[in-house]
Amino acid sequence: RTLSLRLACGDVEGRLEAIFGRVRAIQAKSGRFDMLLCVGNFFGSTSEAGWAEYRTGAKKAPIPTYVLGANNQDTLSYFPDVSGCELAENITYLGRRGVYSGCSGLQIAYLSGTEAQEQPAPAHSFSAKDVAELKTSLLSAPNFRGVDILLTSPWPRDVGTFANSTGEIDTKKCGSKLVSDLAASLKPRYHFAALEKAYYERLPYRNHMVLQETPQHVTRFIALADVGNTSKKKYLYAFSIMPMSSMDPAELVKQPQDVTENPYRKLRKEAPKSKAPLCAQEEPACQFFFDLNKHQGKKRPSDGKERGDSQPKQAKKPPQPTGPCWFCLASPEVEKHLVVSIGTHCYLALAKGGLSPDHVLILPVGHYQSVVDLSSEVLEEVTKYKAALKEFFRSKGKRYVLFERNYRSQHLQLQVVPVPLDLCTSEDIKEAFIAQAQEQQIELLEIPEHSDIAQVAQPGTPYFYVELDTGEKLFHRIRGRFPLQFGREVLASEALLAQPQRADWRQCAAQRPEEAAQARAFRREFEPFDFSLRD
Q1: In 3D, which of 159, 105, 110 has the Cα closest to residue 134?
Q2: Would you say 151 and 232 are in contact if contact means Cβ atoms under 8 Å apart?
Q3: Around Cβ 234, how many Cβ atoms within 10 Å?
């Protein structure tokens, strides 16, 4: 169990005296470090005179120094061997791509250069083939869990998603998609990059899908500025690290308080499932789901058994409301002019003060509090309404977003809001929900597409969930306070419908004659898709 003290630095750009002087000062104050890892441009366009003193041995680096290769044509001549070599005493060029394992047992993956913009790739660039070969060499190892450190010169594209502010750097435009792909696959505990002349320490992100995969370690991404910059941005980073292979597994996978969703979740979903080897202790995610009650983390069967009571679901009768209910169809309080379709067990109504004129609710005819409480025949009809609405909205060039808030509500309301297909993708919708949830310290987790909410929430559990018409679902177990308008706020935000003024339904409520006219129009258009008229 060896704890290693390391230093990482950004673009040296030939300022060897500056970086090595700083290292000597740190060591005089804090003790000896094991190595210096350099990302970005190690050499500058005017390095030759200063470099000659190190190359000839007149001067020596104070600690073992490992550098990445050229990022431009001008500095290629400093790296005589593409596969890596000693450049001077104590200064080693790691090579084009590969894994360095020192005597401490740390695994350091590295990729030199910038992403190629043309084929064949110039000598100072890497291609998709380079990244694929590096990934294959590591992922094919039995029980691969990740690497300790990843060194790249470019930032990974989209690293700022779900994260703290990146300042002036727009991570949706700068950086490399191939580096993002590499980081998503290699799951480094630390990832260092440079080239943008900026210091950025991202909040740690998780490397597993909560509720779907066994917990894994987090990744910390750190971008470093250029050595000796006049803005005094941080260019040298000290850290201590124990090799993953030496760590207690429970200690390794501990999740810090400020952990965020994985910024490369799109890439992880697109990656072929067969190429992701399971950890030694990991089981295929489809075999179990997690309880979110007090026995959190305990496995329980996903076959519908052990649901608390052994009574078949269809034997349950809906409980009677304790007072007036605005949504029980037999109740005098129901605003019947908003009803647009009535089935045997469920009905469809326009939302009062809807986000759009075709924002509807799926509601059970009887009094049920949440989806988890529904009997099997009611659930079956809910599914039929979802299918009909999907077909209806798709015919109009829209996709629906459904959400339920089982918190401070008496009667189940499934809010169904259509969003134009050309406005955003299903991934954009999920990202908008997750990003806004994170801002409000709400943990919104993706759950398996083919699972139902009853597999992750017991009856009586307060929760919020989102479902897309693709079957993708996000879930939050409510443990304290929860913003009542959260679902509407996200959909109304600039990221999606761009109508923030409609987040509160009370600001959108129309007069009764206008509501009745909207309901008639919806009923007429929905008629060809309405199974209740044919059954």
Answers
A1: 110
A2: no
A3: 16
Contact 340, 526 (CB under 8 A): yes
Domain of 142 in residue numbering reads as 5-253
| Element at 166 (helix H, strand E) | none
- How wide is the angle at C-alpha 402 spanned by C-alphas 470 and 318, nearest 5°? 115
362 with 226, same domain: the answer is: no
How does pLDDT run across 437-463, given as a tens digit for each residue? 988 889 888 887 777 788 888 888 899
First to last CA, the chain: 69
Question: CA 106 from chain center: how many Å?
Answer: 27
How do residues 353-412 score in pLDDT, each as one tens digit? 899 999 999 999 988 999 999 998 999 999 999 999 999 999 999 999 999 999 988 899
- The pLDDT tens digits for 160-185 are 999 999 989 999 999 999 999 999 99
| 392: β partners | none
CA atoms within 13 A on the CB side of 193: 27
Q: Are residues 348 and 235 in the same domain?
A: no
Spatial distance between the Cα atoms of 89 and 65, rounded to a whole number of angstroms: 9
Residues 6+ apart with CB under 8 A from 52: 58
State whether 214 and 350 are in the same domain.
Answer: no
User: How many Å apart are CA 198 and CA 63, to the nearest integer?
Assistant: 25
Of 236, 253, 270, which residue is a domain's last? Answer: 253
Burial of 115 (0-12, 13-18, 19+ CB in 10 A): buried
Phi, then psi, of 211 in degrees rounded to 5: 75, -10
Residue 268, domain member (yes or no): no
Residues 56 and 161 in one domain: yes
Decide the pairing of beta strands 398-406 and 463-468.
antiparallel
Q: What is the CATH number of the domain that holds 451?
A: 3.30.428.10
Last residue of a domain, one of 200, 235, 253: 253
Establish if 307 belongs to a structural domain.
no
Cα-to-chain-centroid distance, residue 365: 38
Establish if 20 belongs to a structural domain.
yes
Q: pTM for the complete prediction?
A: 0.68
Q: Which ranges constitute the DSSP H helices of 396-484?
A: 426-439
- Write the burial class of residue 446 (CB in 10 Å: 0-12 exposed, 13-18 middle, 19+ buried): buried
Q: What residues have CB less than 8 Å from 383, skipping those under 6 apart?
A: none
Residue 449 CB-density burial (10 A; 0-12 exposed, 13-18 middle, 19+ buried): exposed
Tell how strand 289-290 and strand 236-241 pair up.
unpaired
User: Is the Cβ–Cβ distance between 505 and 488 less than 8 Å?
Assistant: yes
User: Cα–Cα distance between 160 and 150 in angstroms, integer?
Assistant: 17
CA atoms within 13 A on the CB side of 335: 13
CATH number at residue 130: 3.60.21.10
Question: How wide is the angle at C-alpha 288 spanned by C-alphas 282 and 289, nearest 5°?
Answer: 110
Neighbours of 139 (CB within 10 A): 13
Residue 291: pLDDT band with limits 50, 70, 90: very low
Q: Is the pLDDT reported for residue 217 higher than 60?
A: yes
